[in-house]
Amino acid sequence: MINKLLRLLFSEKCPICARIAQNHYTAPVCSGCWEGISLYRGALCEVCGRPLASEESITCGDCISDAPLFKNARSFGLYDGVIKEAISLFKYHCTKRLSKPLSDIMLKIKMPEVDLVLPVPLHKKRLRHRGFNQSALLARHVAKRISIPLITDCLVRVKDTVPQVGLHAKERKKNIKNAFEVRNKCIEAKRLMLIDDVFTTGATVRECSKVLKKAGAKDIYVVTLAHGKGDF
Hints:
The chain is an alpha/beta fold.
């Protein structure tokens, strides 16, 4: 009944197929398009989760030549199609209500056993401009569902970097260098889940993991909604 009332008052066209979104929970994305979001089941790097071309491979070249400090990274799907559109609506068009259904998608990934959940932080200037941290909203829902404490004041972004979108792998790594700090010792000897929306080259979560390990974190597991197809 609530959905029917919301549809009458706030009917929205799906940006993907142009049909009226019948379910306010996933609106403006309609239920039909939302159900098309699928788990990636192909070959992937056992460390960073990068999609691989062959089932014979288990680790990508980047993780062999420059092993990250996180234990492993996993994403629900590829940054393409409906999930890409949904993340764009959520992140860039302030459709914050999508944080709940998107976090429910993340929960379909097998969650690692951890002590604390942390979001990848935004710089205070970016946070003021956008009005919210999309990773923090996702992390809040996930932490609540798995009954693990959420920590948002430990890992902070101290460098106002240019957006990573459009940058190549080497540029991303240089851009994000020394961008994060750990402000308290609550993570010492703890297993951490680091949550972000999209894993592209991994430069951001690699840099976060570096400062978290330096501050005494035991193990770090990265969980994201989607894995991009960036320039590695």
